[in-house]
Design brief:
Elements (H helix, E strand, L loop, with lengths): L1 E5 L7 H11 L6 E5 L5 H10 L4 E4 L13 E2 L1 H6 L4 E4 L5 E4 L2 H12 L10 E4 L3 H12 L5 E4 L3 H11 L3 E4 L13 E4 L23 E4 L8 H8 L3 E3 L1 H17 L7 H8 L3
Parallel strand pairs: 1-2, 1-3, 4-6, 7-8, 7-10, 8-9, 10-11, 11-12
Antiparallel strand pairs: 3-5, 5-6
Helix pairs in contact: 1-8, 4-5, 4-8
């Protein structure tokens, strides 16, 4: 058994994804929702092993704090400063991983199989947890230039300084000009999410060949993606990232590397 710990967590699509694969591969198991309040996180994480779970996903707001309560954190997750997956080892030890960057890169490749990280400058809007995972995975995949723009400039500076010479921070006011010559634009803010205003950006300077990606998946097409599609850019929504990040976790827990198929997309979309 496995599940996802978050607070609140009722909206999570992870049960729809993992239970689909459990049925598809006829695994003996189930994936549930664990609403865990922040003050109970330590007890909940340490309880995974005692309950006999194979592991757990960790989501908002626990991705950073949960690192403190596992026995080992994978080097990539350490660099990201957060975990989104715990796998119980044969000896009972809890190992923490972060598959968000993997999920992001795989979702780009699914949308555009010829996509390459070194195709040209990348513009990342936002500098929170999702941005950390995305910027790091892009740099590891060979991105030559990552332009980071965040409403709070200091957070963009921190990311750029930490991630080295190929990442640079720009003022929020520069976000329209920063699109010039870009091969990829990624929104990692919550602007455009259901209940939030659209991301305030003008795409006029973005080449029409650029890929436009949004980490948000509710709605599936944010105003940013709709505007990009209308001007001819290929778009990638955040559901692909969510579906693909789940694959290595399922593999670790249930022993099968599952695929993201059109039928899975349809099953998860049907929950919206
Ligand atoms: P976070 O750490 O709280 O970061 C939020 C980011 O949004 C910050 O950069 C923040 O800028 C920016 N922001 C907030 N309000 C803004 C506004 N009014 N104008 C401009 N920027 C604003 O959150 P997160 O964990 O990175 O998540 C961000 C988004 O990614 C969420 O929509 C989440 O659902 C999505 N996500 C998706 C996946 C997936 O699998 N698809 C995985 C993880 C996250 P400041 O620094 O200035 O506050």
């Amino acid at each position: 058994m496995a599940g996802v710990m978050g607070w609140p967590v009722a909206h999570s699509r992870s049960p729809a994804i993992h239970n689909y694969w459990i049925r598809q591969h006829q695994c003996q198991g189930a994936y549930g929702l664990f609403p865990v309040q922040p003050q109970n996180l330590q007890a909940a994480v340490r309880g995974i092993q005692a309950l006999g779970l194979a592991g757990c996903n960790i989501t908002i707001p626990h991705k950073v704090d949960a690192m403190k309560w596992v026995d080992w954190v994978a080097p990539l997750a350490q660099r990201m400063g957060a975990i989104n997956t715990i796998v119980v080892q044969a000896d009972g030890a809890l190992h923490g991983f972060n598959n968000d960057g993997f999920g992001f890169l795989e979702s780009l490749k699914e949308a555009q199989p010829t996509w390459r990280a070194d195709a040209g400058p990348v513009v990342v809007i936002g500098a929170g947890g999702a941005a950390r995972a995305i910027v790091l995975s892009l740099l590891d995949a060979g991105a030559t230039e990552v332009r980071i723009l965040n409403r709070t400039r200091s957070k963009a500076d921190e990311l750029a300084q930490e991630f080295g010479a190929r990442a640079s921070a720009y003022d929020w006011a520069e976000r329209n000009n920063a699109l010039s010559g870009a091969a990829l634009l990624v929104n990692t803010t919550d602007q455009g999410m259901h209940g939030q205003p659209a991301l305030d950006i003008d795409l006029a300077q973005l080449p029409s060949s650029a890929l436009v990606s949004d980490a948000i998946y509710i709605p599936l097409e944010t105003p940013l993606l709709a505007a990009a599609r209308l001007r001819g850019n290929t778009t990638v929504n955040g559901l692909g990232m969510l579906l693909h990040q789940a694959r290595p976790a399922f593999h670790a827990w249930f022993g099968v590397m599952p695929e993201v198929t059109p039928a899975l997309w349809a099953a998860v979309k049907a929950t919206f």
